[in-house]
Amino acid sequence: MEPELQDAIRRVHLIVGNARTEGYHVVVGTGSTILFQAALYALSSSSAVVAQPMKVVCAAPYYSQYKEQVELLQSRLYEWGGDANTYDDEDKTAPFIEVVTSPNNPDGSLREATVANKTENGGKLIHDLAYYWPNYTPITRPEDHDIMLFTLTKCTGHAGSRIGWALVKDVAVAQKMTSFMQITTIGVSKDSQLRAARILQVVADDCESKAGAFGYGGDDADRTFFGECRKVMAGRWEKLREAVKGNDVFGLPKYPKRYCNFSGRYFQPAPAFGWLECKEGYDASALMKANNVLTRGGDTFGASNRYTRISMIGREEEFDRFLERISGIHCVNEDEDKEGEEGLVVIHDNNGNARRGNGNFLHEVK
Amino acid sequence: MEPELQDAIRRVHLIVGNARTEGYHVVVGTGSTILFQAALYALSSSSAVVAQPMKVVCAAPYYSQYKEQVELLQSRLYEWGGDANTYDDEDKTAPFIEVVTSPNNPDGSLREATVANKTENGGKLIHDLAYYWPNYTPITRPEDHDIMLFTLTKCTGHAGSRIGWALVKDVAVAQKMTSFMQITTIGVSKDSQLRAARILQVVADDCESKAGAFGYGGDDADRTFFGECRKVMAGRWEKLREAVKGNDVFGLPKYPKRYCNFSGRYFQPAPAFGWLECKEGYDASALMKANNVLTRGGDTFGASNRYTRISMIGREEEFDRFLERISGIHCVNEDEDKEGEEGLVVIHDNNGNARRGNGNFLHEVK
């Protein structure tokens, strides 16, 4: 790992106050995705592990890619265990891994481990803190979990550089994760590491120049890179809530205001994704698709298809077009429907075209 | 994948004449290492595959990392089958994968598939052609295998950018490999892709400006990037052979001269690694280590410890120091040895310190 990048990562965490780095080892990866796999390997391949593959669980709704990554190579080391809420290990002693995503993807909620605290041996934890930055959510405390994953993608938006990092407490786990990176990709692009280091240095310099290190609050913090991002996100959420308010089909989660130590303000989270809920009986992503909006449906997140995930971090013109499209959607009980199926509803899109849905599909009425 | 990179890759192959690209799909990866794993996944996860993990074999001596990569996650899709020369599938119908590395790492030999041609269904092939560039070996024909792996690391030396590519004939295999890259790393650093594209464009421009496309031969080709690299490599091999000639411990493989279509000359291969053979009864890497040279011993390549792999592509000063150190090694039958063990030999290093070896270890006599 490039020393400049390690220094920049530690410096940004210290300034933002979202994670402890003292006493932690930093492991760099080609994005945080592969570091998740490195962590699975590190936690499941130790000699203390029994013959059974370790179950990997996550409370639903969970990031759809975890399951895909866990199952990809049909490993004998670990296997997907599904929703942590319903996970039940009879003897409460089998080793397992719980992934805790906080703020959560897709629904933006702040999460604590569920299963890990219920069983005797506690299980192993991987905390995916990709979205725990003041652009999205109030920073209430520096987190200090065993394995914490972060990514440049969500911190500054430079997804194309494929740079993620893990803060790891245990040196043996960090070494195993590094060894996984070594074997699978030999290393992480130096070009990207150096660029990421420079980006994070600029972000850190910006924070310090606006308010001086550790002296944030109010207007000063609002003018930092994170503060400006937060304003954009908050503005989009306001527009989205406005668009949804006017219709009788969709609902959105409500987030309580919290005090953000970095910003010196109380504010509501403005997550990177909207977790849109539909009226009972609707397939939310099919409904969106019928209105020319591509989203990821609830079932891919281990949840009901009444939900779908919409991106809040696309380009401005995309977001505006999206708002336009969903604003026109509303629901009408069509009494005069010829087929007369129970519970059938007609959705009118912006152009006055009527569509209908009955939970699993949508088709043109006319 | 960035279109500039794809174009540059196809252009360089066309100019060098080492691989066909027409009708091939290009899959980019974070180095060719992960593309090897992507190929394993693509070949072993198709629905036609039986319940048994597919064996992955490679003729010894083989690149030590293949085994490590195959075994890392204890996949149910594939497993390491060892040396292709001794691989014996009784019913000759079980699907398997043979990795063909040509020129071979560690010993620089030109390779053809072995097992794949012996059995009924032929098996699946992955060709690792990382070293098939005119800096190392005569380019005798454009290769046209099903899956061919290349890497910037060995082509131009830019290992730190972590850019590799696969040329893949079958579209379904290419799609599966891309999907593997998508799931494990989401994508490949754009920073690195754009830099690699520029590097390959410069290399291609250089070749064309020296001799005009497809008009190579003799002096013109010698002044290209590849020609200059070849001169460095050939010079190092000459020095190495000189250093080894004077001592009675080591031997090196001999390579026949071949006509290189790119260079318009006959020349001997000058591989990126030297595959050093020791006198019977010696542990080659232990012997080198005792003389302060770190090498990778034969056993890690599925071969005897009489062999060890030395790098020919380090920095100039490192290479010179290495030559200095091995030049001083010679072997003496020490009749007056007090312990009088049979076959014992004393190795004198540069400083006149005597060391001895008996096949598995070396220790100070005095």
Describe the protein in words:
Chains A, B: One of its GO terms (molecular function) is carbon-sulfur lyase activity. Chains A, B: Keywords: Pyridoxal phosphate. Chains A, B: InterPro entries: Alliinase_C (IPR006948), Ethylene_sulfur-biosynth (IPR050478), PyrdxlP-dep_Trfase (IPR015424), PyrdxlP-dep_Trfase_major (IPR015421), PyrdxlP-dep_Trfase_small (IPR015422). The structure is a homodimer of 366-residue chains. Chain A is α+β, with helices and mostly antiparallel strands and 366 residues long. Chain A has two domains: 3-208, 3-Layer(aba) Sandwich (Aspartate Aminotransferase, domain 2), CATH 3.40.640; 226-364, Aspartate Aminotransferase, domain 1 (Alpha-Beta Complex). In chain A, 33% of the residues lie in helices and 20% in strands. A seven-stranded mixed sheet of chain A has the order 1-7-6-5-4-2-3. In chain A, strand 16 and strand 17 form a beta hairpin. In chain A, helix 1 runs parallel beside helix 6. The longest helix of chain A has 22 residues, at 190-211. Mean pLDDT of chain A is 86; it is low at 334-346 and 356-366. At the A-B interface, helix 2, helix 3, helix 5 and helix 6 of A face helix 2, helix 3, helix 6 and helix 7 of B.
Keywords, separated by commas or semicolons:
4-stranded antiparallel beta sheet, 366 residues, homodimer, Aspartate Aminotransferase, domain 1, Aspartate Aminotransferase, domain 2, 7-stranded mixed beta sheet, 2 domains, alpha+beta, Alliinase C-terminal domain-containing protein (chains A, B)
